[in-house]
Amino acid sequence: MNAPRRIERKRRRGWRMPAGAVYVGRPSEWGNPFRITRSSDWHGLSGSWFLLDDQGTTYHPDEDTQRSARQKATDLYADWVAHPGDHGGDAPTRDRIRQELAGRDLVCWCPRREPCHADVLLDIANSNGPLTLRTGRDAELHFPRLPHGPPGEPV
Asked: Does 85 have pLDDT greater than 90?
């Protein structure tokens, strides 16, 4: 069996989501609430990249590239899942991520070679032990070992 992977969703005619894959982009329950957008000046020329969450809060203004803004959005998503109370909203729990996404391919709109929150979900869903996610800002998010066994059974 192949390891679960992230698949880039396409808008091309004939493209189909693979059987058993789970869509994790917006507006699904797994979607990243941190959106990247680009500012424009009063001439309508494009400016720097920044992030907005679902409540309209701005994060990390003045990113130079879309890739760096996408990395910040991925880092914020990892932090949101690791520390749900810090950003508001209903972050999915690590237990729920593992129960519903383990062993499954995940589909998102992010380009395959770009940072994506689906990679965070894949790492959490398919880890058996303690997990450390390294983010683009050289921070580490530590996830404790999760219990094993059927739901409702003591571990």
From this structure: no
At position 20, the amino acid (one-letter code) is G
> What pLDDT shows up at residue 132?
62
Neighbouring CB atoms inside 10 A of 102's CB total 14
CA dihedral (6, 27, 141, 137) in degrees, to 10, reads: 80
pLDDT digits (tens, 9 = 90+) for 41-63: 555 556 778 787 887 787 766 67
Reply yes or no: is the peptide bond before residue 4 cis, omega within 30 of 0. Answer: no
Give the pair of three-digit tokens for residue 118.
Answer: 């689906």
What does the DSSP 8-state code read for residue 92? Answer: P
Query: Per-residue pLDDT averaged across 131-149, rounded?
Result: 46
Strands (E), the chain: 6-8, 22-23, 35-40, 46-52, 58-63, 106-108, 131-134, 140-143
Measured CA distances, 52 to 48, 69, 85, 108, 124 (Å): 13, 11, 17, 18, 24
Cβ–Cβ under 8 Å, residues 103 and 3: no
